[in-house]
Amino acid sequence: MNNPKSYAPRTLAAAACLAAVAFPSFSSAQELVYRETFGTTTRATYASMGWSFRYNNATGTARDGSTATTATAVSEGAHSPLSVGTNVGQTQTSNSATNGLAFFNTTGGFNYFGYTSEYDGTNGPLTTSNIHSITYLNQSETEWQMRAAIQVNDSWYVTDAQAGYTVSGTFDQGAALLTFDLTSTSWTALSFVAGSVLELGATNQVLPTGTITAFGFFGTGGTSSNRIDDFSVYVIPEPSTFAAFAGLGALGVAATRRRRK
User: Which of the 8 DSSP states describes residue 244?
Assistant: First the structure.
């Protein structure tokens, strides 16, 4: 039998490698809790997807586009580049006619705001302390500035960080995945009263502690159609999840020891 002192360092090295793979840093780990693929076989409304849509007109009011099937709607057969499952709504299959696509048309200069409160906590709590990131596919024919939005208690915030993707052609040929890291972002207050006001407020805001009761996207800029799909919300896993990974690492170390005896 090998001298334990001779292989202990190698065992420790193996444990370190296992930990690096199975036990990622707390800030980088993420777990999907919500994804909306806007699945539909015919042109539909935001409301039929469990979403709301508001936009400014010339007088600055937050007009309701949730029930429209023209300028603000969900279209069928959008052929998303991703092939993933969803915990809310339909199961998405790439290039499926049942895969929808949220979109809106504009002449420019207004604010556009899509959001939902349909997440019911099925996959765990969603709070300002555990939210990790929001991602969604985006494509437009002219440049837009897009953000992620969350509602904490009764107040809305959007990310100071903005992103956008401009490309001609069909959605599956040019959509980009926009990622908003919410663990290190700063925020802008969003003044929103349905039918009354929709405008950005103070920047560099610190989120209050509390439950996230709704989330969505916010856009300004462009002068053409903007398309959204695969809206996803990720959280930082519970400590018990990391404990499970650590247990796997310990099992690996034990197996290494047995092999060396």
Answer: H
Tokens of 35: 């994804």
**Domains along the chain?**
1-28+238-261 (no CATH), 30-236 (2.60.120.260)
Please name the residues in contact with 91: beta carbons below 8 A apart, sequence gap of 6 or more: 39, 85
Q: Which helix (H) or strand (E) holds 159?
A: strand 155-159
Q: Each residue of 130-149: pLDDT tens digit?
A: 999 999 888 887 778 899 99
pLDDT: is 188 or 195 the higher one? 188
CA distance 74 to 190: 24
Closest Cα partner for 110 from 231, 227, 218? 218
Distance CA 223, CA 237 (A): 39
Picking from 32, 54, 186, 41, the residue whose alpha carbon sits closest to that of residue 116 is 54
49 secondary structure, DSSP code: G
